[in-house]
Amino acid sequence: MVAPGASPYFAVGSAVVDHTPDGIREWAIGTFGTSDKLALFVGMGVIIAAIAAGCGVAERLRPPTGAVIVAVFGVVGVIAALERPDSRWTFAIPSVVAGLVAVIVLRILVGMLRKAGDTIAHTTGAEVGEQSPPDGVGRRFLLAAGGIAVLAVAAGVVGRRVLADTTRTVVDRTKVLLPVPRSAAPPVPVAADLRIPGATPFVTTNDDFYRIDTALQVPSLTTGDWSLRIHGMVDNEIRIGWDELLAMPMTERMVTLTCVSNVIGGDLIGNARWLGVPMKTLLDRAGVQPGVDMLLSTSADGWTCGTPVSVATDGRDALLAIGMNGAPLPVEHGYPVRQVIPGLYGYVSATKWVVDWELTRFSDAKAYWTTRGWSALGPIKLASRIDRPDSRSEHARGEVVIAGTAWAQHTGVASVDVRIDDGAWQPAQLAEEYSVDTWRQWRFTWNATPGDHTVTCRATDKNGRAQVETYASPVPDGATGLDSRTYTIT
Ligand SMILES: Nc1nc2c(c(=O)[nH]1)N[C@H]1C(S)=C(S)[C@@H](COP(=O)(O)O)O[C@H]1N2
Ligand SMILES: [Mo]
């Protein structure tokens, strides 16, 4: 009856995520990185505690002000829960119950204090709060407040256990046997991974892979729950189930995924081996009608993503993926099925927990981030990054190995150059290219001289275009500018 998304805490948190202005969102991602969700929860907890304390004081001084504020919070919870894309009317229940309980608890506790205060005022003529209450009242109040707090925490912990019912999904995931791909990913050549200590490995492990999404609670689907509905401007409306998907020929590819929110030098990028069915196979089955230019995909929790159909069908390895680095997708990376499309930022391509495809037009539909000021199209911008040595580290004069990565998904990196201070650009040594859809490592051996120096890198793609040097923030379609680091040479 009560879905996880109905929790007032998560519903309000989700509403905050959905309605946060771009500037603040960028600031939060820049400051907290992939811990942004934890930061949100802690921040909400602190604010709620402060307001609750204020309500206690207000209720004591000017009843029923505190109770009214608490009730308003309940209403906010109801609105936030009903606003969830997957909500039903039952989503209102937890907030209504929470609001009622909170008002009752507040009235009881403040009532205890007021009675104590009245007694003092009566016997001594003192003002409320000027003197400690008579023996026993303070202790009784503390016991009641403490008991209620313990109950609340216990209810919260049990509730979380029940609501975060990922057990089913986790168990389901252990039973998945990934099929052998018809077209396997080539092995990584030794020369594609320079293995320089402190530099980023060529393949990102599932545990180290960055995670970005709006889901405060990971959607928990089983393979049995999953199906993909394909509808809209198609010849045949179809629904594909898990078994049907597994029976289709699979392709395995190494693809580097990047987030549009990645700042210059940022780490919202990862490279993994994905296993899945080419998206074109499914689009062909449904029969895309003329005039369609957008694939609007929707996740189980209602997040939407608009992808140019031309990109998903132009022959690149756009996959409806079920495997990541040889394992079923981790739950937080989209279990059981997600999209992976080389060359597009995740917000316009990489729908996790994907359950719905609507074929439509960019002029008719808008996706989640497009309605929040981000560009409708999101090709990944050419970029390069210094990975080692650590920023502001000290080194002895002589050879210092600078190493990093560069990416120009679906075009390929042609060269990377390095500049010391305002000097001339000098070519870095490139690792072997794995494919145009993956990032490429580079290294530069610097003959460092004493002093403070700034090292900057710049990539050029195979179309001969160099990185844009002027700084631009990620909004609305990806950051530009050059990554640099400062070192002290002794
Ligand atoms: N369902 C869903 N899918 C989503 C998102 C989301 O918020 N919800 N975020 C997208 C964005 S912005 C990025 S960058 C990638 C990140 O994928 P990852 O978390 O597996 O690295 O997922 C994409 N898919
Ligand atoms: Mo993203």
UniProtKB/TrEMBL annotation:
<dbReference type="Pfam" id="PF00174">
    <property type="entry name" value="Oxidored_molyb"/>
</dbReference>
<feature type="transmembrane region" description="Helical">
    <location>
        <begin position="141"/>
        <end position="159"/>
    </location>
</feature>
<dbReference type="InterPro" id="IPR000572">
    <property type="entry name" value="OxRdtase_Mopterin-bd_dom"/>
</dbReference>
<dbReference type="InterPro" id="IPR014756">
    <property type="entry name" value="Ig_E-set"/>
</dbReference>
<feature type="transmembrane region" description="Helical">
    <location>
        <begin position="88"/>
        <end position="110"/>
    </location>
</feature>
<feature type="domain" description="Oxidoreductase molybdopterin-binding">
    <location>
        <begin position="216"/>
        <end position="367"/>
    </location>
</feature>
<dbReference type="InterPro" id="IPR036374">
    <property type="entry name" value="OxRdtase_Mopterin-bd_sf"/>
</dbReference>
<protein>
    <submittedName>
        <fullName>Molybdopterin-dependent oxidoreductase</fullName>
    </submittedName>
</protein>
<feature type="transmembrane region" description="Helical">
    <location>
        <begin position="65"/>
        <end position="82"/>
    </location>
</feature>
<keyword id="KW-0812">Transmembrane</keyword>
<keyword id="KW-1133">Transmembrane helix</keyword>
<keyword id="KW-0472">Membrane</keyword>
<feature type="transmembrane region" description="Helical">
    <location>
        <begin position="38"/>
        <end position="58"/>
    </location>
</feature>
